[in-house]
Amino acid sequence: MKVSSKVSRNQANLAALGIFVLCAQFGSTAIRQAHAEASKPTEKKQTVTKKTGAKSHSRATLVPPPPPTMPDMGGEMMVPGAFSMGTGAFLDYMSLDDLKLKYEGLKKELDSLELDLADSKLLLSRKEKDCTNFDELFQEGVVSKRELEATHREAERLKRDVEREERKVEEARRVVERVQSRIKTLEAKKKAKPRKK
Asked: Is 152 exposed, middle or buried (0-12, 13-18, 19+ CB in 10 A)?
């Protein structure tokens, strides 16, 4: 780089000297033409270095796309955006034995969700009774306003939890029904096929 810059400076100096000589011989029009010719090569070199510098900085690294499937918690492959219980579009491609195994697991999970929902409903009913009792006690002056408001807030939170758990149970029931209908369809196809001897 240092050698090329010295060479370009020497060329520029020689070009300036040539312009001076031409100025003396031909006048101002020759000077303009000679100066334009002398300045052209150095401008091209500058633009070339700028272009190569820009190309070296604009290199983008390629990022591979995400995989089409992701493993779920049970080690099975799950399509992104499928149900939270680990079942989704892949149900249509599972074998009959795998579906039966999946059905057993989902049924147990549904039973567990239903028990949790029953417990939450019991807690909610108790908390609602507490709210009515606290309303009466607040009127008598036994309970402070802060305790009354805290009881009502807790009842509202429990109500939201019950609604959330009801949605989970409903979704789980739909998934179990879907797996069950798929099992029935595969069993019907299996019975309809003639066995090869």
From this structure: middle
Rounded to whole angstroms, what are the CA distances from 81 to 106, 112, 186?
Answer: 18, 24, 25
Structure tokens given for 197:
């001897």
- Tokens standing for 82? 């499928």
How many CA atoms are closer than 13 Å to the CA of 26, on its beta-carbon side? 11
Mean pLDDT for 120-147 is 92
**Residue type present at position 38:** A
Q: For 62-78, write each residue's pLDDT tens digit.
A: 887 766 655 444 444 44
Rounded to the nearest angstrom, the gap between the alpha carbon of residue 88 and the centroid of all alpha carbons in its chain is: 19
pLDDT tens digits for range 181-197: 999 988 888 888 766 65
Query: 3-class DSSP state for residue 77?
Result: strand
